[in-house]
Amino acid sequence: MMVDKLLNETHSLTRLNHVLKDYFATFNIHSFAFTYYVRHVKTGMKLKYDWVTEPLKPWHQYYLEQGYADVDRSLEYATQRALPFFWDVQQQLKVAKNAREKRMRQESIDYGIDEGLNLTLHTPDSGLAVLVLHQRQGESGLQQHQQKKLEWLGVMHCYCCQLHRFLNQDRMSSDIQLTKREYECLRLTKEGLRLEAIAQLLNITPRTVNFHLQNANKKWGVNNKYHAILKQFSS
């Protein structure tokens, strides 16, 4: 099964991340981090979501704690390009512009970082998604990056589409609070009952049933009860 098809058929965020990890493992890439920011780097980023594989977790957490995105010129440069950006940390250390950037590069070496490939996407909600594939000291997973980088960018696009769906589901399920009656009216409509049958079952008038359904529509931001049902009961 093609990885894009598998990504599109995942039903949970945990499974989605597992698929991505297994995919890059086939290229001997075990250290990577995904970060999703709601604003552009230069205007001040707010981290909305991040996920990192276990081998890279110590460095990734330290990087975020130190706020190194502010001085990471490889990240800034990558956001200005449509194509993936390859970097070598030893070369970055040589051209560091200030003491803080130099410290960041040296610390990344101390954490075992050697080379990396930045993949970036600007998302439809004006956000920025960054996938950084790391080649740690003694590894060789990025040797194929010239031949594979566009394929990897396509996989990242699939991942971002699914991630956006899961994050929206989490937001909607926490933000949208239907009353007991609104929920019951939607559920019974989903089961195929008509207005009159729902009214009789709940011992209310058909007009009241319609009132609850209209309220559910408004809360979900849709125009009819069938769209509300899709949003309420989507898996």
UniProtKB/TrEMBL annotation:
Q: Where is the HTH luxR-type domain?
A: 171-235
The entry's protein name is LuxR family transcriptional regulator
Out of the domains of life, which is the source? Bacteria
- InterPro entries (UniProt xref): Sig_transdc_resp-reg_C-effctor, TF_LuxR_autoind-bd_dom, TF_LuxR_autoind-bd_dom_sf, Tscrpt_reg_LuxR_C, WH-like_DNA-bd_sf
Instruction: Give the UniProt keywords, A-Z.
Output: DNA-binding, Transcription, Transcription regulation
- A GO molecular-function descriptor: DNA binding
Tell me yes or no: is ATP-binding among this UniProt entry's keywords. Answer: no
Q: Name one Pfam family in it.
A: Autoind_bind
Instruction: Give the GO terms filed under biological process for this record.
Output: regulation of DNA-templated transcription
